[in-house]
């Protein structure tokens, strides 16, 4: 026995640091630091935007930094349309709404003569909102037709089925392939540094939940979006939740920080957007006590994507002025992004 | 060099499994299984309730079980008052409200003659609601006085400061020491098995957030509760969120499953409550497709805690009938719990 014990000592001594390393948080940090050192954000050019992102992440994650933030407090909030994926010529949820209304039309012969449905059903493409739909109320009616009266689970399934076959009206590509590769890398980089990532967007919450986990790795409970009020009832001993015909929340502008406070209850230390609708979220983030990162995606690339800002359906005007005045980070798509979309799958 | 290489082989061979073990998920599972095997739920007697909990967790976490649930889908929802901590003689938030109104009284001389404040200020103990407060509207007015017009962050700080010095009017103990030890062990057990735990409770969301992380290990974004509407504004270049005087949501009864769907977007596979107000949450959980656990805490212990059910401020009546009819798990405090409260700190 004694002999065996003696032989085993060097093995234990060698194995010990590995074992300790595997059982505490140091290991995660080492892995993260390695990730940073090798190929962080490969689709970002080595311009000030990328440097600002990395400097911020190092600032809040280095244990000896005066701006160190505990992992549980590393909340990052992202707008979706125009920030994580494209939004031209229309926000992609509109393509769903148009397709869905066309699919439901046979059950609604009255739509042939009733606006806003009639113009929509006559239209032969999906790349513009029919001129007859000129108010939010009319758009709201279209949203309700696709979403009210069914359960959130049914609605999510309809969206999930649709999004696997839907194609962009201009590029012909699957919509989920029109996510921004640099932003996917940013999500991964933040996650590797123990950030908890939320989407906070004007799109329907359940529309985004239908693809956010598969597309971005963002679970349903980390998606905040617009929603309808719901109703609970027992139906033959089975609990059923149904979307009503009444809007509950439209998560744009000032509603973004309010939803963040309500649902998350912690102030983000990093926020990402692309329009004036994201400005209150940026302002809320920037008004926190410690270090913060406010990053605006600026659509400047008419060749690889689209170029638009101050004049658009969802303008980036006051936000652009404030970002420049405050020195927030602006990701200029044309100069800061090496690639826009992920490489195509063969 | 050759000699060194030869000597190092046995070390590498021995260290390898440890290293592999530390770098993939198997390690977590092994740790969990070890936890289960040793002292899972030590404050629970070895009665059917404990067996049902363990059987359920094994059913949904064993990789070869037909009822296996992916870790990301292991959502568990807990009521707070009467489920995670005591709620007698009154829900503990009421003690806060009474103390807060007394603290604010010098700034409100008009309260001396204005109900419901006058009776409350005359009262010499905290263990009963003054008879003059006999409607939800009057109670609502008291809640607003403590919460409206300040920021959620200020309110949380006031609660956090108060709860460190508040004492229970009957036991004289700190309120956060009147959490249920068996339920703390249950939270740990579920977390060790990759469950994501939410509080879903009628108490004010920000009241619970002020202590839930320290007391239960539940982070703010996993606390769902009643709330006021909020307002966002810029004040001298600083973003400010303020609680208004309007209620936004009261998270009791049917509002519980609706809030779960809205905030989490996944159906819980395990729910825990103690009153009829938790019944819709149980029904929603039980109506899911796969395996589920619905557990009711039944207050049957007049010696160590309190005994109440069908007749109380927050009755456990329809819920008790349905739990018995459906064969849900009932944790009988008197017979199933070895201890009620955590051991006192010296």
Break the fold down into its secondary structure elements and pairings.
Two copies of one chain form a homodimer.
Chain A: H1 2-23, H2 26-39, H3 48-61, E1 75-78, H4 92-104, H5 117-122, H6 136-147, H7 152-165, H8 181-192, E2 196-204, H9 205-216, E3 223-235, E4 238-249, H10 255-263, E5 270-273, H11 279-286, E6 293-298, H12 318-326, E7 329-332, H13 333-336
Parallel strand pairs in A: 1-2, 1-5, 2-3, 5-6, 6-7
Antiparallel strand pairs in A: 3-4
Helix pairs in contact in A: 4-6, 7-9, 10-11
Shape of chain A: globular
Helix content estimate of chain A: 40-55%
If interface size is counted as residues with C-beta under 8 Å from the partner's C-beta, which chains form the largest one?
Answer: A-B, 46 and 46 residues
Low-confidence blocks of residues of chain A? 1-36
Structural class of chain A: alpha/beta
The CATH class of chain A is Alpha Beta
**How far apart are the termini of chain A?**
61 Å
User: CATH homologous superfamily name of chain A?
Assistant: HAD superfamily/HAD-like
Oligomer kind: homodimer
Main beta-sheet annotation of chain A: 7 strands, mixed
Quantity of strands of chain A, as a count: 7
What is the CATH architecture term of chain A? Answer: 3-Layer(aba) Sandwich
Largest sheet strand order of chain A: 4-3-2-1-5-6-7
Query: How much β-strand is present in the residues of chain A?
Result: 15-25%
CATH topology of chain A: Rossmann fold
């Amino acid at each position: 026995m004694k002999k065996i014990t003696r032989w085993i000592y060097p093995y234990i001594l060698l194995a010990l640091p590995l074992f300790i390393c595997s059982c505490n948080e140091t290991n995660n940090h080492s892995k993260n630091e390695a990730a940073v050192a090798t190929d962080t954000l490969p689709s970002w050019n080595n311009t000030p935007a990328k440097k600002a992102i990395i400097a911020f992440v190092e600032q809040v994650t280095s244990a000896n930094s005066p701006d160190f933030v505990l992992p549980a407090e590393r909340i990052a909030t992202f707008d979706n349309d125009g920030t994580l994926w494209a939004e031209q010529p229309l926000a992609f949820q509109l393509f769903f709404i148009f397709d869905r209304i066309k699919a439901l039309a046979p059950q609604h012969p009255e739509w042939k003569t009733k606006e806003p449905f009639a113009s929509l059903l006559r239209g032969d493409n999906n790349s513009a909102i029919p001129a007859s739909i000129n108010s939010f109320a009319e758009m709201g009616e279209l949203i309700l037709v696709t979403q009210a009266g069914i359960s959130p689970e049914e609605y999510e399934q309809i969206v999930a089925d649709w999004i696997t076959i839907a194609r962009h009206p201009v590029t012909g590509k699957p919509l989920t392939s029109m996510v921004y590769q640099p932003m996917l890398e940013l999500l991964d980089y933040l996650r590797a540094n123990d950030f908890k990532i939320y989407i906070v967007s004007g799109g329907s919450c359940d529309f985004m939940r239908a693809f956010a986990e598969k597309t971005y790795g963002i679970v349903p409970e980390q998606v905040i979006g617009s929603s309808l009020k719901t109703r609970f009832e027992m139906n033959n001993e089975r609990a059923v939740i149904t979307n009503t015909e009444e809007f509950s929340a439209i998560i744009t502008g000032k509603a973004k920080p309010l939803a963040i406070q309500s649902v998350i209850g912690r102030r983000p230390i990093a926020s990402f957007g692309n329009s004036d609708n994201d400005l209150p979220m940026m302002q809320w983030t920037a008004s926190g006590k410690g270090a913060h990162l406010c990053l605006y995606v600026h659509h400047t690339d008419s060749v690889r994507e689209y170029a638009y800002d101050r004049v658009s359906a969802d303008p980036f005007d006051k936000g652009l002025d404030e970002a420049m005045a405050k020195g927030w980070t602006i990701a200029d798509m044309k100069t800061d992004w090496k690639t826009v979309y992920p490489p195509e799958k063969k």
